[in-house]
Amino acid sequence: PGTLSYDKFYQTESDFQIALNACYLSLKNQVQSLFAFNDLMTDNCFLNSLNSTFDTYQFDACTVSSSSSTISGFWWNCYRSIALSNLVITRIEGSSVPENSGKVFIAEAKWIRAYSYFNLVRVFGGVPKYETETKDLTEVYSVPRAPESEIYELIVSDLKAAREVDSFRSPSQLATSKGKVTELTASALLGKVYLQMHDYASAATELGSIISNKPAGLDLEEDLTRLYDANNPFNKEIILAVNYERVSGQNSPFTYATLPKFSKEILPNVTSSDNGDGSNNIEPEIYHRFAGNDKRKAMIGSYTVTGSAGGTYYYTKKYLDLQTTQAGLSASDFIILRYADILLMYADALNNTGKTTEAYTYIQMVRNRAGLGSLPAGYTKDQMNDALAQERQFEFILEGDRWFDLSYRGYNYLKQTLNSFFPNSAYIKTAVLDDHEILFPLPYNQIKAKPDVLTQNDGY
Length: 460
Description:
Oligomer: single chain
Number of helices: 20
Helix content: 40-55%
């Protein structure tokens, strides 16, 4: 305070590029929580018993409380992205930024805002909605939870605006837009949003258009190790990813988080006696569900620990950066959208619009890449729904997708799938998903700070 005001900063094109960079940077804190919601809370992975004091233990045990630091951190990080995006969107007017450059900045910021609200609404349901810069603290304390429908309305509006971003870019800007929000990025997320809203016709139109008019270079990576290679962050399958570097403060947490506790020698350049912390080890039963010839199974490693913590632990190789030199100093990226997701979502949309026969083509494209044979002919809509849910688990395990994918199919589907699995869990065999747990609790510190406008979700 007293040294640099917002009014003096948000003026030039360079200022806004710096501000937009902050919006992108903020995503890394959001996505770090998605493992807890989507993988630990489901049948994908478990928290090593030696780490039962971790806050994320609540997710593994299905006992998430409103005082969870993961819950409050996720809320804070999503709204930080929204606040930063709103600053860019609001402050463009009155600046000296050229018109087209301003439109690019706004479009990219709106995508980031839409993605942040999409994460919030899938986790909490209705949440407070902020569409402009908040200049007065009293505004923050007076905004109640908006209905889910209003949040989705804003998300769709933002993504439709973001979809126009490439039309405002110069040829040189288009050539260097890899890793940024593009028309493809906006269209892909919009298709996912429509699917989550059960607007299957719109989802089919949006996703089908991507497949029919596939941009040059976009395709499935046949080599899965190349798809997840930390040295190949913008390969032909990835539509958007959160990019990390082997530099302190910009490093990826996912290599260390997914390797077993007390594992040694997995990372050749790490000299410490522990390569990982066991936060997200793959459930053994899920590992054994993969067909033996499924190439995706080869992306799962095993490590046997001796001594009091003895046992064989399974871990994903998706975040295995072999150039890591010390715990956590990794460049493994977090993929937000990739082409396999487009194909499977399109199959989902077709199946739910009465075109189950057509859905076979697109699920089979992903299965072919995995080296698997054709699904049996004549599936009903419900059978294809089950096949897609299973295929998505195999394809996106430890990519922060599972809970959202199951809950989108309905609470009964989510509950039946998880409660039938939990007795077979590697660790928390007594976990049970209760009726109120289709949504997560709002953070207690938010309820306490704004008791007059924020209500808690039922059951918490």
